[in-house]
Request: fold
Amino acid sequence: MKQGKEAIKRYFERIKKEKGEEFIYEAKLTLVGDGSAGKTSLQVRLMNKNASLPKKETRTRGIEIKDWDMADSPRSLFKKYLGNDGSKQIAHIWDFGGQDVYFPVHRFFLTENSVFVLLASTRVPQHNFEYWIPTIYQFGGKSPIILGQTCHEGNKVSWNDIGIYLGNSNFNIIRAQDPPYYQLNLPEENEGLDTLEQVIKEQITKLPHFGKGVPPSWKQARAAIAEERKIHACITFVKFREMCNEVNPEQFVRKEDFEDFANFLHQLGVILWYNKIEELKQWVVLQPEWALNAVYKIIDDPDVQETGIIKQHDFGRIWEDRLYDDKHLILKKMLEVFKIAFPKKHNRQDYILPARMKSMPVEMKWKRDESCLRLEYKYEFMPKGLVNQLSAQMSRHIQDNSVWNNAVNLSNEKATAQVEEDFYNRKITIRAKGKDARGLNMQIMAELDVIINEYRGVKPEIIVPCTCKKCLNSNDPTSFKYDKLIEWSETKETVTCNESDEKLSIDSLLFEVGLPNPTKEKRENRNGRKPLKSFISYSKFDGEETTGVNYLEEFKSCLTPLTSYNNLISTWDDTLLIAGENWDNKIKEELNTADVIFVLMSNDLLKTKYVKETELKIAFEREANGECIVVPVIVRDCGWADIAWLGKNNAIPRKGHTISSWQGKFQSKDEAWTHVYTEVKKMVESFTR
Ligand SMILES: Nc1nc2c(ncn2[C@@H]2O[C@H](COP(=O)(O)OP(=O)(O)OP(=O)(O)O)[C@@H](O)[C@H]2O)c(=O)[nH]1
Ligand SMILES: [Mg+2]
Reply:
C-alpha cells in the first residue's frame, strides 16, 4: 500500500518533470475456464467476426497471446470512450489451455489489473467456478470478472448456484441484467458477442492504467521494448535498465525509474517481471509465451506424463530449441519458485512434477492408527494443488519417493506423516506418528500456513478429531472446531465427546496435535501481567524491494516466541495502519503508549524526516522522563553511535555488530537474530520481575 502510494507520487513527479504526458492504451484481457469452454473461439471472434471456430478436437496447448486492436473492429463501440490521439488501443488477449494438468501454472500468469472473462460451456454440467473465481481473486485481486456461458447447441442453462460468488464482495463480478451472466452462441451468427464485447471494452477502459497519461520517456521506452522483443525472449534486468537508459538517459536514472516502468509493463501484460521474487527479479521476460510455453512443454511431454519425473537429460531434450539456449537455469527456477516442480532429494538434477504423478494408491493410505495424530484443514474455497506445493516446500523431507498428485509422506528422524488432499470435499488431512509426531505436525502446519498466506482470503477451518478411546477406533470420530475449542477454553477446561460421553481436556487436545492455545498462554502469563507494549520504528527503504531483505519482518519473526507464543510483549509498526486512518495521530498514540521502542537502525532510517522529527523525538523525550526504554537494533551499518542522544543507548546485536554484516561475527544470520531475541528476552524479563 505504502509502496503503491510512493509509486503514484513518483509518477506525478515524472509527468511534471517531463512537462507533459503521452497515452498508452494497452491492457491485459485474460480468458479463463475449463478445457473446451470456448476461450479460443471467443478470442478469434473478438479479433475477426468471420473467423472460423476451432474444431472440437483442437485444444490449446500452453498459451497464446494475441494483440487485439480494439478500435479496429468494424462495429467498434470503443472509440466513444476515448479521445483519439491516433494511438492503437490494444488488448493483449491471454488465451491458455484449460485442461486441469495446467492448473499449477495459473499463479504464474494471473495478474492484477487485468480484465478476466470466465467461460463455461453448457455442454458439461460443471462450471467449476468454485475453483476459478477464488483463484482469479487470489492472483488477480479486484480485477473485474465477466462470466460467460457458451450455449452448446443453443442450450441455455440456468446457473442457480452462483449467488454465493455474486454475494461475496471480494469477487468483482460484473453482473449482466438477467441472467447475471452473458450468454454466447458463436456458431449462431455470433449471438451475444456484441454485448459481451461492449462489456469487455467498458471494463478495459476502467482499468486504472488504461489510457492514463504516462511520462513521454515511458512511451519511448515502450517502443524500444517492442523492438527488442522481436529479437530476444528474455533479457537480464541489467540489460533492461541499459535499454531504458539509452532511450532517455535523463529520465531513467534511479532504481525506481526502472522498477516502476517494469511493473507497469507487467500489468499491461506485455512482459513478465516478478519483482517480489528474489531468484527471478534479475530477469525480464519480453515474450511471456516463451516462458509459459517452456513450462507447458514439460507438462505435456509424453515421457514426463508417464512418470511424473523430469530427468536431467529430459530438460536438454524438451528445451533443445535454440530459443531456450542458456536459459535453462532461469526456467528451472521458475518451475521451482511457482512450485510446479522441484528437485529430488537425493538427486537434485532430476525434478518431480507432482501434477503428473499418479494419485496415491489405496494400499498406501494410512489405516486408522491409535498412535496417530490427526488434524484436518477444511476450506470454503480450496486452491488446487496445495499438497503439491507442500511437497515442493518440504521436498527434503519426502520419504522414499512417496509423493503423489494428491498426497505426500514426510519424515524427520523421529516421526513420519501423511498429508492428503481431498479436493472435492475441500479438505486436507494431516496424520503423524512416531516419537516426535507433534513436532512434525507443527512443522507441516507452519509450512502450510506459509503457502496459504500467499492466497488472499483463504482461511481454513481447523478440525481436531476427538481422541477418546471410542473415537480413536472409529471411522467417523467426533470432531471439534479449533476456533470453538479456543472459545470454550476461556470458560471451561474440558469438552465431552458426543459418542462416548468421555470428558477430554481442551488443553491436551490442542497440545497433542501441536496447536497453540492462546487462552492457556494468557492464563500462564506470569502474574497475569499484561504483555509489554512495543513500537517498532523502521525505514521502509530497509525492505525487500530495496535491500532484498525485509528487516522489519525478520525482526518481528525473531520475537515470535515472546509475542505469539508467550504473550509477553506485543509489537506495533505502521504496517498495521488501517486504510483511511489518520496515520500521524495513530503513530503518535502508539509511540506515546509504548513501554519499549525498538529502532531498526540504518542510514535510511536516520535520514527519514518523519523518523527524526517525530518518532525519535518522542521516543527520547519519553525515555528521558523514564516512561519507556529505547532499544536500537542495528540492522545495517551506519554511524548511529556518533549521534549524542542515541549513542548512550545499549544496542543489539552485540556492540559494533549489525545484522546485514553478520558474517565473521556470527555463524549465520539466524544466529545474529537469535542474539537479538535473547537480548530482548532478558530485557522483557527484567520488566516482568
Ligand atoms: N455452441 C457453441 N459452441 C461453441 C461456442 N464457442 C465455442 N464453441 C465450440 O466449442 C468447442 C471448443 O471451443 P474452444 O474455443 O476450442 O475451447 P477452449 O476453451 O479454447 O478449450 P481449450 O483450448 O481446450 O482450453 C469448439 O468446437 C467450438 O466450435 C459457442 O458459443 N457456442
Ligand atoms: Mg483454447
Remarks:
- The CA atoms of residues 153 and 413 lie 60 Å apart.
- The pocket of magnesium ion (ligand 2) is lined by residues 39-40, 60, 95 (CB under 6 Å).
- The chain has 27 helices and 27 strands.
- The two ends are 40 Å apart (CA to CA).
